[in-house]
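Can you make up a polypeptide sequence alongside its tokenized fold?
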Amino acid sequence: MWWDWLVPDASTDSAPEDPAGVPAITARGLTVRGPWGPVYGPVDLDVPAAGVTVMVCPAGSGRTALSMTLAGRMRPTSGSLSVFGRTRARDIFAVAALAGIDELDTVAESVTVGDLITEQLRWDAPWYRLIRRADDDDLRRVCGPVFGELPLPPRSEFVEELTELDGLLLRIALANTRRPALLVVGNLEQVTSDANREVLVDRLVDLGREQTVLTASVNGVAARPGLREIPVAGVSRAELAGHQEGGA
């Protein structure tokens, strides 16, 4: 595969406090190349701390790889990246959650919501601690901050029976149990209903009150407080081809 898998850092410390106005993410000339050529880049990016930032760019493997890089799940081939002052992928991994990336967090449709929560709680716990099956209190603790006032999915519900919105919110909740400084959500178009996508964005804006949330969209979203859009170039095949033809 063209990505370089990383071993998670055992550290779970939170990101250092940042002075007002200092970007949460700064990338310069960020590039990933694989065996078959460029995947994305060069990308320059500044993401302010807190709130929701939507990267407006074409869908595809380049955008997916960029999201993975910004969350510390992939090492860049070249360029520089700083996430809350951390520059090594392993250190960025420790302060970032990643959800909604099919290559990483797709779940089997034949399992229940309760099964997934139980598995995540066991994954988060020290190896010596016995974790019982998740109950309704665990459901509220894990999913409540992400779902907000929306109805929580029943523990007995199979993943295949969830709506697109509930399915993605569940993936976000499972990835976000430690509430790290940075939450990266793959892309908004996973929810195909315009109305439900607006609900998803509202939920991300709410999470952005306490975290820096980064996501992506092809066409962008309706403006609202706590949300900003930034165009990102260098992630599509057409852009990469043009860059190469230009001799850069």
Notes: The chain has eight helices and eight strands. The mean pLDDT is 88.
